[in-house]
Design a protein that fits this description.
The complex is a heterotrimer of chains A (222), B (204) and C (97). Chain A is built from five helices and ten strands; from the N terminus they run E-E-E-E-H-E-E-H-E-H-E-H-E-H-E. Chain A is an alpha/beta fold and 222 residues long. Chain A has two domains: 77 residues, Elongation Factor Tu (Ef-tu), domain 3; 132 residues, Rossmann fold. Chain A has a five-stranded parallel beta sheet with strand order 8-7-6-9-10, sandwiched between helices. Chain A starts with a strand and ends in a 5-residue tail after the last strand. Helices cover 5% and strands 32% of the residues of chain B. Chain C is globular, with a radius of gyration of 13 Å. Chain C has two helices and eight strands. The longest helix of chain C is centred in the first third of the chain and has 8 residues. The chains are: A alpha/beta (222), B mainly beta (204), C mainly beta (97). At the B-C interface, loops of B face strand 5, strand 6 and strand 7 of C.
């Protein structure tokens, strides 16, 4: 689900950054989680993508209890490594595992907002068609001829699906990414094992480690 | 350290049970789970290579292979545990070898201990807090062999101190003449760590 | 909820420690490049596997597991140990936020 927040004090953010959210109960008990900012940068507002973890401590509060007008304590924006702006260049390869698509969505939305011509490919691994986050918006974004969205569905797929149905591997990255050339940047975000496998596959395909940026997600929020 | 901000309607996942309130140290909350907290990747030392040693200011130094260690008398232990990150768990059931058993026949002038572990983790404690039935080297939890994520094959178990002192993947005890801050103690955590006096950080 | 969490699935990286580290450094440090004292490998702080995030942050070299940056969040005190790093390289003048 998407949490929209507003604050006059919010300075805006760089695509890829996150916030640390802290919840405090009346008796002082605290819990803290990090959430990627999924929106395009804007002063005064931001949107977080919250994956609801069954039995979790924070995500059920954010998705079920929080109501319009409530206040949320957060620290940020945070992140100077896993960020992309047009000044960083491209072409861009964005590789997402599940909810790891959130910071990459911020990058794609920002890219569209500023009308950038930098080519971007999103390779997005989900378990099933109806678990794809931002699915319809990604269809709209891929109307831009410089944007490609490639899905792979690893557990189940709809009848007539002719896309990938396996976990991201070196062959799929090569199809998606093309030849690595100087200027190309890759951003990989998702569960730890996913990120480490993809990053090492990219390096094996010829990407220099400095062209590949990674962000490991835990069980997001929880 | 609580500021003014309260998140309306937030309670968290902790349990509340007035019947056991007296068993929860100040600032702690009951948890239903068993959070895994590690300073490094889980080691996987094969049992054939595992040993446990008592060394330092001792006569004689001692060493047990895994088979020798498991042949020692062990006991079932039911204790409450308290993590410095504020969760507590009551009536946890372990099986282990008492430190008293391991120190039987060992002479020492040293009064402090550094527990050392696979992966390089260390923690320091007074020797007096390991003896007289206060501590064990535990190899089973909840009736099962101790899982690697929770410190298996064996971890130190010192339930009367904050749980970072119950060092996972323990491989031995070095007896020392002076208190020597271990891994977290060198990064600002308390040298002793009594949950009932809320000794979380240096200077508490 | 499972009591045993798979360590590889849940381990995060230096990005998750950035909020804490920004309180120690003047600039947000996750883009800073660190040289491992154990094996000489270089990596950005954000790319380093992170452990112990409940007590601070232990960032380790992805090649040799040396703890290159150790941070203890001990109440009002943040304690930083960089003995596992040969050096830390920060680019000044980059806008982080």
């Amino acid at each position: 689900m998407t949490l929209r927040l507003e604050s006059e004090a919010w300075p805006g953010h760089l695509p890829g950054q996150h916030v640390d959210v802290r919840l405090t109960a009346e008796d002082g008990y605290q819990a803290q989680r990090s959430y990627s900012i999924a929106s395009t940068p804007a002063a005064g507002s931001l949107a977080l993508t919250v994956e609801e973890i069954a039995g979790g401590e924070v995500s059920p509060y954010l998705s079920e209890e929080l109501r319009s007008g409530d206040r949320l304590e957060l620290r940020g924006p945070i992140g100077g490594y896993f960020t992309w702006t047009e000044a960083n260049g491209g072409p861009l390869l964005l590789v997402a595992g599940g909810s790891g698509v959130a910071p990459l969505m911020s990058m794609l939305r920002y890219r569209a907002t500023i009308g950038s011509a930098i080519p971007a490919t999103l390779l997005y691994s989900s378990r099933a068609w109806d678990e794809i986050i931002y699915r319809e918006e990604l269809e709209r974004l891929s109307a831009d001829p410089a944007v490609r969205v490639i899905h792979t569905l690893t557990r189940s797929h709809p009848d007539g699906w002719d896309g990938y149905t396996r976990r991201v591997d070196a062959a799929m990255l090569e199809d998606a990414a093309g030849e690595p050339e100087p200027g190309r940047l890759a951003y990989v975000c998702g569960p730890t094992q996913f990120v480490e496998n993809v990053a090492s596959d990219l390096v094996a395909l010829g990407y220099l480690p400095t062209w590949v940026k990674t962000e490991r997600f835990g069980p997001t929020g929880g | 350290m609580v500021g003014e901000f309260i998140s309306r309607g937030f309670r968290g996942r902790r349990q509340e049970d007035p019947a056991v309130a007296g068993r929860i140290p100040p600032g702690q909350y009951l948890t239903p789970g068993f959070p895994v907290l590690s300073a490094g990747p889980t080691p996987h030392t094969p049992l054939m290579q595992w040993d446990f040693t008592i060394e330092g200011a001792v006569r004689p130094a001692r060493r047990w292979t895994w088979d020798e260690f498991r042949a020692l008398p062990s006991e079932s232990i039911t204790v409450d545990i308290h993590c410095v990150t504020k969760w507590s768990k009551l009536d946890t059931v372990w099986e282990g070898v008492a430190i008293d058993t391991l120190l039987d026949g060992v002479e020492t002038d040293g009064t402090y201990v550094t527990a050392f572990c696979d992966g390089g983790y260390t923690t320091n404690l007074p020797l007096a807090d390991l003896v007289d039935g206060k501590a064990w080297v535990a190899f089973a939890y909840g009736g099962e062999p101790l899982a690697p994520e929770h410190g298996g094959p064996a971890r130190l178990l010192v339930p009367h101190l904050y749980f970072w002192k119950s060092a996972k993947w323990v491989r031995g005890l070095e007896i020392t003449p002076r208190d020597r801050p271990g891994f977290w103690e060198s990064l600002g955590y308390h040298d002793y760590g009594d949950p009932w006096r809320e000794q979380r950080y240096q200077g508490d | 909820m499972s009591e045993i969490e798979d360590e590889v699935t849940t381990r995060l990286d230096g990005n998750a420690a950035a909020g804490l580290l920004t309180q120690v450094f003047c600039a947000e440090p996750s883009g800073a490049v660190i040289v491992c004292a154990g094996c000489g490998a270089t990596a950005a702080i954000g790319a380093l596997p992170a452990y112990g995030l409940e007590l601070g942050a232990i960032l380790r070299c992805p090649h040799c597991d040396t703890a290159v940056l150790r941070l203890g969040a001990a109440g009002a005190t943040l304690c930083l140990d960089l003995r596992g790093a040969v050096s830390l390289r920060v680019r000044i003048g980059d806008s982080a936020s």
